[in-house]
Amino acid sequence: MASSASPGGSLIGIRSSKRPDPPSGAPAEISVVLPLSAGAPDPAGTVARLLAGLAGCGEPFELIVVGEGELPSGDPRIRRAPCPAGSDLGARLLAGVRGASTDFILPALAGRAPAAGEVTMLRDAMDSSGAFSYLPGSRAADVAIVVGARTVFRNLVVYGLVGVFASDFAGPMLARRSLFDAVHVAGATTPEILLGIVAQTRRAGGVVRTLRDPAPGGARLPVPIADAWRVRARLRTGP
What we know:
Spore Coat Polysaccharide Biosynthesis Protein SpsA, Chain A, eight-stranded mixed β-sheet
């Protein structure tokens, strides 16, 4: 399928066709990690909504929850990882990654479920032989993320600060589990955490694929300039 280059060597792909739903009981291929903030209201409801959104994602998955509160019972896809005492959202995400059993991590920050087709699109973007027109010999991606553009100016500001050409996150991120051994996961907000992971990956020479929003006009998560500044500071001083 067609694709085009973007700043920083990323590849922008278009949505691929939806895979059929996996058979019931198939081994998980993606670990969805849900770090709950301290005192998060209705964690069971958050998990139920996330599972409903993931039902048609086309990939067998496990859901790892990090945080306090009662969870739905009887679903073998749900597991709870130990929650570090006094931890921020980034530390809870990392705790969930360490409890994952698959090679691909999908952070479910803010409990947002992927839109139809997004998981398939991300998974294809991680595979150099997937439904994207990569150049022969291209390295497989370490991170794939769905991005949007609020304005060209904001894109350029964020790119100038941290080297990521995106002012909005329009969908989820998928990353290789091994990546989390090489990056410092920190931050109190979803944009700060995601931006930090992407920026560190790119700075370390990893491959980042930024993908067009498959549902323009949908909900987006703006990247505050203050978050980009904090990520920039950590890049300059180290963890």
